[in-house]
Amino acid sequence: PHYDATGLGRFHKFLCPSELALSIPFTATPNYTLPEHLNKRSLSLCAGMRDEAGNIVFLSELDEQPDCTVTVKSENADKVEWALLYSGSCFKTCKGIKESFTLDKDGFLIQSSLIDPQTNEILYAVPVFITNGKDTARIDYTQNKITVKTGNYQYTVESDGISTAMNGRYDNRNGEYGLVVFQKKGDKITLRLSLTCG
């Protein structure tokens, strides 16, 4: 917990700036040096749910580490597919989270679902690059899509959920990011991430 947060922490593509999508997750209690005035929070690309009081709790912010099972479905040079099952007593308003991932030439497909949720909503956290101190991103929103551009590079996140406005600014070793949350009624949400270079 002093270096990483639970969830997806890295999405890279050859020749694209490593920090554009995400290169490392965030931690609220880093064992590495960041200036004291920076905002710290445990964040990754991850699903979330509401607690009994209606507050959002992301997988990255659970009080204790969940149990995790990984299943590789297929892997070859053109495509990799795997699934994760998170469970344990750290989940209060559902029994866990199931996720499936497909990485191929078109990008990264994420399908996430809550197991036996007590609420009718699933959320997904997407840290969005703002600046690394040298480069500053141009960020465009629509209801279901975020586009982040620096120079000739573009990061796109599309979802069947509805995006919120960017909320807060948080820092890791690569730069400053905003937090966008996709929300969807029901227990399942899908996201597609892609990086375009040049």
Spatial gap, N to C terminus:
35 Å
Oligomer: single chain
The major β-sheet equals: 8 strands, antiparallel
Radius of gyration: 16 Å
SSE topology string: EEEEEEEEEEEEEE
Taking pLDDT < 50 over at least 5 consecutive residues as the criterion, the unreliable ranges are none
The best one-word shape is: globular
Detailed description of the structure:
Strands 3-4-5-6-14-10-9-8 form an 8-stranded antiparallel beta sheet, with no helix packed on it. The chain has no helices and 14 strands. Helices cover 0% and strands 51% of the residues. With 198 residues, the protein is mainly beta.
Short note summarizing the structure:
The chain is an all-beta fold and 198 residues long. It has strands at residues 46-50, 56-58, 67-75, 79-87, 96-104, 107-115, 121-131, 138-141, 145-150, 153-159, 162-163, 167-172, 175-185, 188-196.
Task: Summarize the SSE layout with pairings.
Layout: E1 46-50, E2 56-58, E3 67-75, E4 79-87, E5 96-104, E6 107-115, E7 121-131, E8 138-141, E9 145-150, E10 153-159, E11 162-163, E12 167-172, E13 175-185, E14 188-196
Antiparallel strand pairs: 1-2, 1-7, 3-4, 4-5, 5-6, 6-14, 7-13, 8-9, 9-10, 10-14, 11-13, 12-13
